């Protein structure tokens, strides 16, 4: 009865509102549902923020009391939630209600549940701890027969869901993909997409189901799956080329109006769907002629159809244009697209104009003449009242800047810069101006003035690279030494005038730049003495508004100028004042200056004039202290232990769990145990090898005199006694050899670095010149002056460096070639033996079977043998025995030649490393490129073998790999062959190292070559890499495993059902060892321990246990993504077998 | 991906705040405030796109907004969304609101905050555009409403009562909401292009 009364009362809410104050207890209860109204009313009636705060605090307090009262019904709770949501929206903390929101979602009926879910999704975030309480509710609702409940659960899952709980709901959501209601299927697809975003590894196995969703009979579900494909294709387009046809067909149907009329929006068929599809096509067709050809028709159709004059058709047109310019170009389409851009740019509607400019900016790289066509509009847009349009125009101008128009464009940019106040815009623009100024500066004065403007406006917000680059440019100079000096002198003069200005305020960064330049280059001044400069610096040092960091710069400048100054009164005063400074850093500088000042000769040699670019010799290994250390040790001092070692010891003493990852230190300590003393000393040599010549002497000294106590990892206490023994008979010869080796290694590394650097440089210049070449070919243009092929005025890396790199490269090529020829002989000999061996086997085969059974592979290996005449001296007799002439190679196809050769060359590697199968990556009528991976211990070695198929020889064959985000790619062998004979094969090797863990990546590159008499041809390819390529066995002992296990925080457990055949643990482990390169450490009863590492050195441990037919895997690692990934891979391996 | 959907009135009072990427509470408020200031500065006759700046994810993110009578609808999106497409999506959202509330006005958004969220959930789910077909969205909402009626019976009354009260009280309602342009006119579409 009372229940009904209550219901009735709550049903009459607002009617009591007017006499709420007068109302009794019944009225208070009834007013629950309209409290929100009251609250809103109350808030809007207020005049100040302060009053609002007070009112809401009151409201929150009463809500707090209500929600925690046991008598509050769920229905009342529902109303409370809405009010809490309102308060949170206004920015007030309502965290006391979070748990009640979850409760409401758990316990309420449908409507209450809906409010509960909504509140949860608004209040909490993915990592909120309370969210775990929701998982069960979601699971329950996903299994519900009520569609609305399922919908709500799917919605909440796609809004917020804890990453680690995904496995709990994943199967349920997968089931929903087959649901009969399209709305459920659609939401399920989006929920899975969300999972893909937050934990890609966990949904890898359902990619096939996404394909099913793409083919769903309902358009909505298909459209939802496009979200996923857009994302995945953006990440890796090569994996989805096969779907191009489907996307084209879908788009054709949509454009052709085959969809139900329902999907029309202002009589345009499914515009959002079209936009999505066009984007996908753009990504797929990028740099891929074959794929692009598939879509030309439908793009043409889209361009033609989108004639209606409505907003949304322009959206489609814009995407179309974008796609046309993204894919492999077709002149007809480009023409039409260019016309469309014109329509956008000339449109009176601002939104369209904006997009037109954006499109122009995008296409300008391919077609600079388009900018010329619209130059008048562009100039108009420069003075547009809308700052957004203005900025887009500047972005466009930035792209077409060259040496002729740079002053105009930079001036426009500076104007805009002075007007804008938003930090983000300033940072962005300042970077661009600095870049342009550096690239195209017409003269010194302009350059310095522009940079002054940049520094004074950009000040302390700009990217630190800008001042750094500027200073480096000044210091390193460029081609002409006198010009360098002029530039420096001009900078010094302009800074002095700036500093002389009264009441001028400069940002700290600018002052730092000034002080450095003044400190280095004041000696160029003729009229003014160093004292004058010091006076100015002194004034700044005394200024309170200057930060202590800047003061340090200023002090350094003073220090540099002191040896040049004749009188030192001011310096002494400075020393006096700052040796009592409260700032310890300044005091330190002051004392340094003081002591240097006492010894002028030392000071002069320490602070030479204009030597900022020259490297100082520094003995980083501190070997000159070895004597001191030895003395200390002999007097009984405790040996030094590096920090991590001390920590380890402390931990092992205390028997406390170590929660910190061990990382590198662990593997290296394993190493030192086995190293010979010679190896140890080498370690220290390498570490301190910044100045080789200086060190070599100390090396030899060290060897004879002092004990080897210092290794790369620090002091080596364990080895002490042994080392002492060995000291009596110093292993001199061994030492020499190894030292040489190290030198070789070091120089090699240096050279490779220089090589890559200069290559980058080359690319940059190429890009710059190709961007603007032909831009002004019309010559009629006022704004966009004539095109010029002059590259950067100020080249960042000076000729000195280039010359150096040339020198080193030539030097390297000598050493390299000799080295490689040596190793080649060795390899080939190996190879040769292998082939022989194989041949013998084949021979046997041949005799036992019939002669025609000689398979193509062995045939194709013959040319290889013939190609190695130089190392076949011992062989002829053997060959003769085997009657080689009998199966002289018939003219086989080039592809199989390639295969044979690379297989043969594989053999040399296989003796040591595992490798993948040969894979065709690209080919055309003249060449075919195939690749394989060699999983070396320390890196992944990619080998591309290029085989020429035609009968003509190829000239200047060159293979280049684009730099990729996650990898460090280093070339192994020469990558350019001036001439490649007809039907031959060349191998290109690159070693790849991981810089950042990832799940799926790819690297791409191109091969370019010249056929006889024809133009050069370029062929692009790409190869997928998975994380698995970087997994290597980790060989550690069971004890180490135990220690490591406790130190890792990230763990993942997974149970896999195994078939009978795998039931035995050893066989399962063996499979993991083979397929995933895990190292089996130990097997104890029904448990197994495995370990692996992700290159360069992220360990991951695996603990397996077999229970009846379930294999329980338990991963731990210091890297959070690794266990997830490996568990998925293990699952795949076990299921796949 | 849509990063956030903000609706506020001409005075910067938030009416609907929905983030699809997690920001701490204070940052959310700051985003709302700064977005309001950015948008307020702009005339109605200049373009509807804005760069969000450093606040929301940097240059990859754009603010796309529309101004209807007393309300600003702002969508913050990344580069994977089409600007004009989103502009029309806002239109779809507003038209749907108009259909569901029969002549939608700012007050509807205040008093039926939860309902507006449910409608939005049918248009955008977890930052992805779920449905752009107005009839479909309205059908979903109506299905939910039917459920409300059938389940609630008596309990459905409060909502009706509230809307009754809302109308009764209109004259003395909030001072800073200008009654004159309370109604969001669903404009002739081409005018917004």
From TrEMBL, chain A:
Signal peptide limits: none
Protein name: AP-4 complex subunit epsilon
Keyword list, A-Z: Golgi apparatus, Membrane, Phosphoprotein, Protein transport, Transport
Biological role: Component of the adaptor protein complex 4 (AP-4). Adaptor protein complexes are vesicle coat components involved both in vesicle formation and cargo selection. They control the vesicular transport of proteins in different trafficking pathways. AP-4 forms a non clathrin-associated coat on vesicles departing the trans-Golgi network (TGN) and may be involved in the targeting of proteins from the trans-Golgi network (TGN) to the endosomal-lysosomal system.
Domain AP-4 complex subunit epsilon-1 C-terminal as annotated: residue spans: 1032-1135
Compartments reported by the entry: Golgi apparatus, trans-Golgi network membrane
Keyword Membrane set for record: yes
SUPFAM superfamilies: ARM repeat (SSF48371)
Protein's membrane topology: Peripheral membrane protein
Family: Belongs to the adaptor complexes large subunit family.
UniProtKB/TrEMBL annotation, chain B:
GO CC, one annotated term: cytoplasmic vesicle membrane
An example Gene Ontology biological process: anterograde synaptic vesicle transport
Residue ranges constituting the AP complex mu/sigma subunit domain according to the UniProt record: 1-147
Localization per Swiss-Prot or TrEMBL: Cytoplasmic vesicle membrane; Golgi apparatus
Record keywords: Cytoplasmic vesicle, Golgi apparatus, Membrane, Protein transport, Transport
Main localization of the protein described in the UniProt heading: membrane
UniProt topology in membrane: Peripheral membrane protein
InterPro entries: AP_complex_ssu, AP_mu_sigma_su, APS3, Clathrin_sm-chain_CS, Longin-like_dom_sf
PANTHER family, alphabetized: ADAPTOR COMPLEXES SMALL SUBUNIT FAMILY (PTHR11753)
Summary of the function given for this chain in its UniProt record: Part of the AP-3 complex, an adaptor-related complex which is not clathrin-associated. The complex is associated with the Golgi region as well as more peripheral structures. It facilitates the budding of vesicles from the Golgi membrane and may be directly involved in trafficking to lysosomes. In concert with the BLOC-1 complex, AP-3 is required to target cargos into vesicles assembled at cell bodies for delivery into neurites and nerve terminals.
Similarity field: Belongs to the adaptor complexes small subunit family.
Subunit structure: Adaptor protein complex 3 (AP-3) is a heterotetramer composed of two large adaptins (delta-type subunit AP3D1 and beta-type subunit AP3B1 or AP3B2), a medium adaptin (mu-type subunit AP3M1 or AP3M2) and a small adaptin (sigma-type subunit APS1 or AP3S2). AP-3 associates with the BLOC-1 complex. Interacts with AGAP1.
Name used for this protein in its record: Adaptor related protein complex 3 subunit sigma 2
Origin species: Sciurus vulgaris (Eurasian red squirrel)
Phylogenetic placement of the source organism: Eukaryota, Metazoa, Chordata, Craniata, Vertebrata
């Amino acid at each position: 009865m009372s229940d009904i009364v209550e219901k009735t009362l709550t049903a009459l809410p607002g009617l009591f509102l007017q006499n709420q104050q007068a109302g009794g207890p019944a009225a208070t209860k009834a007013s629950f549902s309209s409290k929100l109204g009251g609250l809103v009313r109350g808030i809007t009636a207020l005049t100040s923020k302060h009053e609002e705060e007070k009112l809401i605090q009151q409201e929150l307090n009463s809500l707090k009391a209500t929600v925690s009262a046991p008598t509050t019904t769920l229905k009342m709770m529902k109303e409370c939630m809405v009010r809490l949501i309102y308060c949170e929206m206004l920015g007030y903390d309502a965290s006391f209600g979070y748990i009640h929101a979850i409760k409401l979602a758990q316990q309420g009926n449908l409507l209450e549940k809906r409010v509960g879910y909504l509140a949860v999704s608004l209040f909490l975030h993915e990592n909120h701890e309370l969210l775990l309480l929701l998982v069960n509710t979601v699971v329950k609702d996903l299994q519900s027969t009520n569609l609305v409940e399922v919908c709500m659960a799917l919605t909440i899952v796609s809004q917020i869901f804890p990453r680690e709980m995904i496995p709990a709901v994943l199967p349920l959501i997968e089931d929903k993909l087959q649901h009969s209601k399209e709305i459920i299927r659609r939401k399920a697809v989006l929920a899975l997409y969300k999972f893909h975003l937050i934990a890609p590894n966990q949904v890898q196995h359902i990619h096939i189901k996404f394909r099913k969703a793409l083919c769903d009979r309902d358009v909505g579900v298909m459209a939802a799956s496009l979200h996923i494909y857009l994302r995945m294709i953006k990440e890796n387009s090569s994996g989805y080329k096969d779907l191009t046809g489907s996307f084209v067909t879908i788009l054709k149907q949509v454009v052709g109006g085959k969809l139900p009329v329902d999907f029309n929006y202002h009589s345009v068929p499914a515009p959002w769907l079209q936009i999505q599809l066009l984007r996908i096509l753009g990504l797929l067709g990028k740099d891929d002629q074959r794929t692009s050809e598939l879509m030309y028709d439908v793009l043409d159709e889209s361009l033609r159809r989108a004639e209606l004059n409505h907003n949304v058709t322009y959206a489609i047109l814009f995407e179309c244009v974008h796609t046309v310019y993204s894919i492999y170009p077709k002149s007809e389409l480009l023409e039409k697209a260019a016309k469309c851009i014109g329509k956008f740019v000339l449109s009176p509607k601002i939104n369209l104009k904006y997009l037109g400019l954006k499109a122009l900016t995008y296409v300008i790289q391919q077609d600079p003449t388009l900018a010329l066509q619209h130059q008048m509009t562009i100039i108009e847009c420069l003075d547009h009242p809308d700052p957004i349009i203005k900025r887009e125009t500047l972005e466009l101008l930035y792209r077409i800047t060259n040496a002729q128009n740079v002053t105009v464009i930079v001036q426009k940019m500076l104007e805009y810069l002075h007007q804008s106040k938003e930090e983000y815009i300033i940072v962005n623009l300042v970077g661009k101006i600095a870049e342009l100024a550096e690239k195209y500066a017409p003269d010194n004065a302009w350059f310095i003035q522009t940079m002054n403007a940049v520094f004074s406006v950009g000040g302390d917000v700009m990217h630190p690279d800008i001042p750094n680059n500027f200073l480096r440019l000044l210091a390193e100079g460029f081609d002409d030494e006198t010009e360098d000096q002029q530039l420096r002198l001009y900078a010094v003069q302009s800074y002095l005038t700036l500093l002389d200005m009264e009441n001028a305020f400069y940002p700290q960064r600018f002052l730092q730049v000034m002080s450095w330049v003044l400190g280095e280059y004041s000696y160029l001044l003729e009229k003014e003495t160093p004292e004058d400069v010091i006076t100015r610096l002194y004034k700044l040092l005394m200024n309170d508004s200057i930060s202590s960091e800047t003061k340090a710069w200023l002090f350094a400048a003073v220090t540099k100028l002191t040896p040049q100054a004749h009188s030192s009164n001011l310096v002494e005063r400075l020393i006096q004042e700052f040796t009592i400074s409260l700032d310890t850093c300044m005091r330190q500088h002051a004392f340094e200056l003081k002591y240097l000042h006492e010894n002028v000769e030392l000071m002069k040699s320490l602070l030479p004039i204009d030597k900022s670019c020259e490297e100082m010799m520094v003995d980083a290994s501190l070997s000159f202290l070895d004597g001191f250390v030895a003395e200390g040790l002999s007097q009984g001092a405790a040996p030094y232990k590096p920090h991590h070692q001390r920590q380890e010891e402390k931990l092992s003493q205390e028997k406390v769990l170590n929660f910190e990852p061990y990382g590198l230190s662990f593997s290296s300590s394993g190493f030192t145990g086995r190293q010979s003393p010679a190896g140890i000393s080498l370690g220290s040599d390498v570490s301190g090898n910044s100045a080789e010549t200086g060190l070599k002497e100390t090396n030899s000294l060290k060897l004879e005199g002092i004990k080897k106590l210092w290794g790369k990892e620090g002091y080596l206490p364990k080895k002490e006694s042994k080392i002492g023994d060995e000291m009596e008979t110093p292993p001199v010869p061994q030492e020499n050899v190894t030292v040489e080796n190290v030198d070789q290694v070091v120089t090699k590394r240096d050279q490779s670095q220089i090589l890559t650097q200069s290559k980058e440089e080359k690319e940059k210049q190429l890009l710059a010149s190709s961007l603007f070449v032909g831009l002004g070919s019309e010559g009629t243009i006022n704004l966009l002056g004539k095109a010029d092929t002059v590259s950067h005025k100020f080249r960042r890396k000076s000729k000195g460096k280039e010359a150096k790199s040339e020198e080193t490269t030539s030097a390297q090529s000598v050493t390299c070639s000799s080295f490689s020829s040596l190793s080649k002989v060795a390899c080939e000999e190996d190879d040769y033996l292998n082939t022989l061996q194989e041949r013998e086997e084949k021979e046997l085969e041949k005799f036992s079977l019939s002669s025609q059974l000689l398979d193509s592979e062995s045939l194709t290996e013959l040319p290889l043998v013939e190609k190695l005449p130089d190392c076949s001296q011992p062989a002829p007799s053997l060959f003769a025995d085997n009657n080689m002439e009998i199966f002289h190679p018939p003219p086989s196809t080039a592809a199989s030649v390639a295969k044979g050769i690379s297989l043969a060359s594989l053999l040399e590697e296989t003796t040591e490393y595992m490798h993948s199968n040969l894979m065709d990556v690209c080919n055309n009528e003249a060449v075919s490129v195939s690749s394989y991976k060699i999983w070396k211990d320390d890196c992944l070695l990619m080998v591309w073998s290029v085989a020429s198929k035609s009968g003509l020889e190829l000239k200047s064959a060159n293979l280049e790999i684009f730099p990729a985000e996650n990898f460090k790619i280093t070339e192994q062998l020469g990558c350019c062959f001036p001439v490649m004979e007809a039907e031959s094969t060349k191998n290109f090797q690159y070693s790849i190292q991981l810089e950042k863990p990832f799940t799926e990546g790819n690297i791409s590159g191109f091969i370019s070559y010249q056929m006889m008499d024809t133009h050069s041809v370029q062929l692009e390819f790409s190869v997928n890499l998975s994380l698995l390529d970087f997994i290597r066995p980790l060989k550690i002992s069971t004890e180490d495993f135990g220690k490591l296990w406790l130190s890792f925080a990230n763990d993942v457990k997974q149970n896999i059902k195994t078939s009978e055949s795998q039931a035995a643990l050893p066989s399962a482990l063996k499979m993991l060892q083979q397929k995933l390169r895990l190292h089996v450490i130990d097997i104890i009863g029904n448990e197994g321990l495995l370990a692996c590492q992700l290159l360069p050195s992220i360990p991951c441990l695996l603990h397996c246990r077999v229970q009846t037919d379930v294999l329980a895997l338990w991963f731990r690692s210091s890297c959070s993504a690794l266990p997830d990934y490996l568990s998925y891979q293990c699952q795949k391996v076990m299921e796949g077998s | 991906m849509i990063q956030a959907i903000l609706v506020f009135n001409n005075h910067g009072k938030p009416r609907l705040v929905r983030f699809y990427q997690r920001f701490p509470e204070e940052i959310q408020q700051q985003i709302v405030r700064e977005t309001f200031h950015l948008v307020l500065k702009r005339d109605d006759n200049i373009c509807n796109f804005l760069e969000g700046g450093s606040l929301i994810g940097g240059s990859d993110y754009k603010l796309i907004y529309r101004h209807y009578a007393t309300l600003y609808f702002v969508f913050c999106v990344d580069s994977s969304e089409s600007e004009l497409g989103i502009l029309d999506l806002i239109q779809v959202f507003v038209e749907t609101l108009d259909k569901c509330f029969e002549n939608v006005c700012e007050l509807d958004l205040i008093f039926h905050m939860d309902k507006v969220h449910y409608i939005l959930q049918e248009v955008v789910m977890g930052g992805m555009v779920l449905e752009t077909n107005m009839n479909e969205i309205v059908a979903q909402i109506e299905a939910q409403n039917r459920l409300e009626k059938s389940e609630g019976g008596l309990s459905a009354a409060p909502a009706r009562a509230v809307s009754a009260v809302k109308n009764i009280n209109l004259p003395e309602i909030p001072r800073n909401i200008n009654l004159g342009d309370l109604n969001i006119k669903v404009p002739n579409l081409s005018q917004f292009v």
